[in-house]
Specification:
The complex is a heterodimer. Helix content of chain A is 50%, strand content 20%. By secondary structure, chain A is α+β, with helices and mostly antiparallel strands. Chain A has three domains: 161 residues, Beta-Lactamase, CATH 3.30.450; 105 residues, Orthogonal Bundle (Helix Hairpins), CATH 1.10.287; 148 residues, Histidine kinase-like ATPase, C-terminal domain (Heat Shock Protein 90). In chain A, strand 6 and strand 7 form a beta hairpin. The longest helix of chain A is centred in the first third of the chain and has 60 residues. In chain B, 42% of the residues lie in helices and 25% in strands. A five-stranded parallel beta sheet of chain B has the order 2-1-3-4-5, sandwiched between helices. Chain B has a four-stranded antiparallel beta sheet with strand order 6-7-8-9. Chain B is built from eight helices and twelve strands. Chain B is elongated, with a radius of gyration of 20 Å. Classes of the chains: A alpha+beta, B alpha/beta. Chains A and B meet through helix 4, helix 5, helix 7 and strand 11 of A and helix 1 and helix 5 of B.
């Protein structure tokens, strides 16, 4: 579930990096364009200057008025003008007109408006797909007042505009694209250690708070691993503190509960023995209530009330016991204790003995189906596990039911798997509820009986400590509940 | 039956005392190991119930001391009570001379059942008579009898039937496994089959069930002696 989030994070970061990098790149490109334009502008200004210098030379080139009216005036191109025209063949042209605009010499298309003053003017002219810079001046020549014009198609400003796309924008776009790809690749590369670390953390079970190997982590994420380990240690310490608190609290509760239970049990026994005589109750600790009931301030409790009281006391005692068992079944507190070889057959027989009376009292047939089997584990924990399973089976199976404790070795796929199983033919657990009944204090809605909702949670926890798997299933003919604990080979 | 209860918690002690008194036992209650040692030196009890978590001298130490010569009868059963449920304490308690243990908080009927079993075994050790309800097995005289009202009826048992019944009686009210019964029988027969146990059990049933003593089969395990209300 975390992976996609991390992916989203990296792509988010990638986008941000892209934006952060591409925007300055674009700005740089614009500055480049501007600078380029500026330099083109300067070059253009130099061109203009040159055209301006050439205009008088052109004017001077008109030496004399035409001999005949129909002929053009005599023209002898000055060397600078000749050079100019030769330098840019096809891109340079000139024209000489009279003040009325009639073409006397040069190209007809070089036809700017006739200036009204003597000052030189600049125009742009489109001809043959080329934009020309045209300088025009009205001035005195050898043939009287004429209008001379020079057209230059090599105008840098015009060329700049044409080449803008190719020369300026394209490299920048390529640069931006390349930067994008580079960022994509780099972010992936840069985040790989982080993604790997996230994977490693992801694969952990929520109970595994052991430190991540710092030395084996990539250098880039080592500080993060260090911080994570520190956090794990803190959480561990806190969980440990909490576990110890629950254990202490449960432990401390047991002595007063033992007192309470001993009292109530005694009253219950006396009450049953002396039915229907009511039982006196007083609160003076030092002198237990006497049977004669002559104590001042005594109240009278009926047998039924005492039974209820006893019932509640037993439940409370069981809860305290289970809380203690649960806190002790914690993997972390067990590391110190060595595991021993546990005879499961003995365990099943011992459990049968201790639950026989309860089962008989409820009219259940409690039986065994055991073969010799051993596991390495903690004897008292496995006893607690099985005891919770049997206790549940007895509690939830109605009178006349059958409860069977099994153990043995299964042969599956060439592996010997030791198992422990409790089957009953009670109401069972619906498939949808099976995942949830393992949760602490969860009880199947509508279930009868006096469970605390901790039994299966404890069993599951203990199975986990033994690296075994606890599964719930339906019994034979789909009835009842089968709880199976399979131990690792 | 006189019992010694060593327990420092007033609530627990008064509850147990109340229950035991109600069940017909005479109970002497002391609150410390030192006081218990003193009392045990001068007086005798049929059984002792000792809490492990005593203030100065703990219950384990007391159990160890009372097993010394001149303190109490070696046959006196000791049942220890503990709020600690670590295996270590239980094993140590049993190693140091306790006969059984119970973890607090406990249910009084269970305490009574365990106490009865302990007392029956210790009595058998001293008087050589194992009894269960109306059934009595005089192991010295090898005589089995059933009390009915005021009369006593002798039951004729074969040697293998005797072995099975003796084993069941020693363990009552706990069930006895078929394997263990088979082991007990191999003293008589080297090549005995598991079926033999069933044969002797069914013969015993024929002799005992008319008198209200049942041998209940425990599926997959063995048998248990039970009393049937008549």
């Amino acid at each position: 579930m975390q992976r996609p989030r991390l992916r989203a994070m990296t792509s988010d970061l990638r986008n941000r990096l892209l934006i952060l990098l591409v925007l300055p790149l674009l700005a740089l490109a614009l500055v480049g364009v501007w600078l380029d334009y500026r330099s083109a502008d300067e070059a253009a200004a130099r061109h203009d200057q040159r055209l301006l210098r050439l205009l008088p030379a052109l004017a001077d080139s008109v030496l004399a008025p035409p001999i005949r009216d129909s002929e053009p005036p005599l023209l002898l191109l000055a060397p600078p003008v000749e050079d100019f025209l030769r330098q840019h063949p096809g891109y340079a042209a000139y024209s000489v007109r009279d003040t009325s605009g009639r073409l006397l010499l040069g190209d007809a298309w070089v036809q700017p408006a006739v200036p009204t003053t003597q000052a030189p003017e600049f125009h742009s002219l489109e001809y043959g797909g080329v934009t020309y810079r045209v300088a025009v001046q009205r001035g005195r020549t050898g043939a009287g007042e004429l209008v001379v014009a020079l057209a230059d198609g090599s105008d840098p400003r015009q060329q700049w505009a044409q080449q803008l796309l190719l020369r300026v924008l394209l490299p920048n776009l390529v640069l931006v694209g390349a930067a994008g790809l580079a960022i994509h690749w780099a972010v992936r590369r840069a985040f790989k250690p982080l993604v790997d670390l996230a994977d490693a953390v992801e694969r952990r079970s929520p109970r595994d708070l052991s430190p991540i190997d710092e030395a084996a982590s990539p250098a880039e994420v080592r500080p993060l691993v260090h911080s994570l380990n520190r956090l794990f240690a803190l959480v561990n310490a806190q969980a440990e503190g909490q576990r110890r608190f629950v254990a202490d609290a449960a432990h401390q509760l047991r002595t007063p509960l033992a007192g309470l239970q001993a009292q109530v049990e005694a009253w219950a026994m006396m009450a049953r023995a002396s039915v229907p005589a009511p039982l006196p109750l007083n609160f003076d600790k030092k002198h237990p209530p006497a049977l004669d009931g002559q104590v001042p301030g005594a109240i009278v409790l009926g047998v039924e009330q005492i039974e209820k009281l006893r019932h509640a006391t037993r439940r409370t005692s069981q809860l305290a016991h289970q809380l203690l068992a649960l806190s002790r079944a914690d993997a972390r507190s067990l590391d110190a204790q060595p595991s021993q070889r546990v005879d499961l057959k003995d365990l099943c027989e011992a459990l049968l003995e201790s639950f026989l009376d309860a089962a008989t009292g409820k009219g259940l047939d409690l039986g065994l189906d055991v073969q010799s089997a051993h596991v390495a584990g903690h004897d008292w924990l496995l006893r607690e596990l099985l005891s919770n399973l049997v206790d549940n089976a007895i509690k939830y199976t109605p009178a006349g039911g059958v409860v069977t404790i099994r153990c043995g070795v299964r042969h599956a796929m060439g592996l010997h798997r030791v198992f422990l199983q409790v089957e009953d033919d009670g109401p069972g657990v619906p498939e949808a509820e099976r995942g949830r009944v393992m949760q602490r204090f969860y009880r199947v809605p509508g279930s009868v009986g006096e469970g605390t909702g901790l039994g299966l949670a404890i069993a599951d926890e203990i199975a986990r400590v033994h690296h075994a798997t606890l599964t719930l299933g339906a019994g034979a003919q789909g009835r009842g509940l089968v709880v199976t604990v399979v131990f690792p080979p | 039956m006189r019992l010694l209860l060593v327990e420092d918690d007033v609530m627990v002690a008064s509850g147990i005392k109340l229950g035991l008194t109600d069940a017909g036992y005479a109970v002497d209650w002391v609150g410390s190991g030192e006081r218990a040692e003193e009392v045990l030196r001068t007086e005798s009890f049929d059984a002792a119930i000792i809490d492990i978590g005593l203030p100065a001298m703990d219950g384990l130490e007391l159990t160890r001391r009372l097993r010394r010569p001149g303190m109490a009868s070696p046959a006196m059963p000791v049942l220890i009570l503990t709020a600690r449920d670590a295996l270590h304490d239980r094993v140590q308690g049993l190693d140091w001379g306790a006969d059984d243990y119970m973890v607090k908080p406990f249910e009084l009927p269970e305490l009574l059942a365990r106490l009865r079993a302990l007392l029956r075994r210790s009595q058998a050790a001293t008087t050589a008579v194992l009894s269960f309800g109306p059934l009595a097995l005089d192991t010295a005289g090898r005589r089995a009898s059933i009390r009915t009202d005021d009369a006593e009826q002798v039951i004729d048992l074969g040697p293998r039937e005797w072995t099975v019944l003796e084993y069941l009686l020693i363990h009552a009210p706990k069930p006895a496994s078929k394997d263990k019964l088979l082991q007990a029988l191999t003293g008589w027969d080297k090549e005995i089959t598991p079926n033999a146990v069933e044969v002797y059990v069914s013969r015993l049933r024929g002799k005992l069930e008319p008198h209200g003593v049942a041998l209940r089969s425990i599926r997959g395990f063995g048998y248990r002696l039970e009393l049937h209300a008549q």
